[in-house]
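agent> step 3/5: call structure_predict on target 'VOC family protein' (Streptomyces triticagri).
agent> reason: downstream docking stage needs a structural representation; sequence fetched in step 2, passing through unchanged.
tool.input:
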Amino acid sequence: MTESAARHTPGTPCWVSLMVHQLATTQEFYGSLFGWEFRPGPDQLGPYVRALLDGHEVAGIGDLPPDRNLPIAWTPYLATDDCDATAEAIRSCGGTVGVGPLDAGEAGRLLIALDPAGAVFGVWQAAEHLGIGTAGTPGTPVWNELVTRETASVAKFYQCVFGYQEDPVVSADYDYLTLRLDDVPVASVHGVGHGLPRERGPHWMTYFEVADVDGTVERVVELGGQVLRPARDGGHGRMATVADPEGAAFTVVHSTE
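tool.output (status=ok):
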């Protein structure tokens, strides 16, 4: 993390983390796929590593404790200046705090929560660790989208906790809105109704930038992952949804903007 890196505006996705059963195997997968290198710590999180790309921290991967019944899924962390106050806001706005707030050593303070529909997300109060150190280059997270049944009620929850402005798509058959802070798009919410995967339920999806979507999809399969939704062209570029060997889903995108 460079000293010149700025603190993230509260409500902005500032980090992504993945808790798995096979930490070493997962490191090999993402190291081969994205060119990540790894640095251990913070120790307070148990076996945990931070992924680096060209010396910049871009993501975290940890060992899932046997007694924790959490989904194997990439989890976005939203920035806050006061983790404890955000925990109270989450409860008062209809969400659930599942883990924390707790200190991660000198790095910062965190919690893991569920929104009213059951989607898991994290909250990060930065101290020494500000969050993602670079963005936009291949191998970095570039977007986070909440996939849920319908946008209206759950968007009100996030607006209540983080003060987002909403920018909905006005369409009779497309339930989608963008969350903004100070007119800057920071995340999106996609209501898919009965199209929600039954085995997953509402969830956050992390998008990682890649130079070649089709080549990345082939590499995912070679490394033991699977394709959940084949490569296709969309409004923001070419993208595909894949899963790592433990089943954590993510989307790879080659942005056109």
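agent> step 4/5: record observation. The chain has two domains: 13-126, 141-255.
agent> proceeding.
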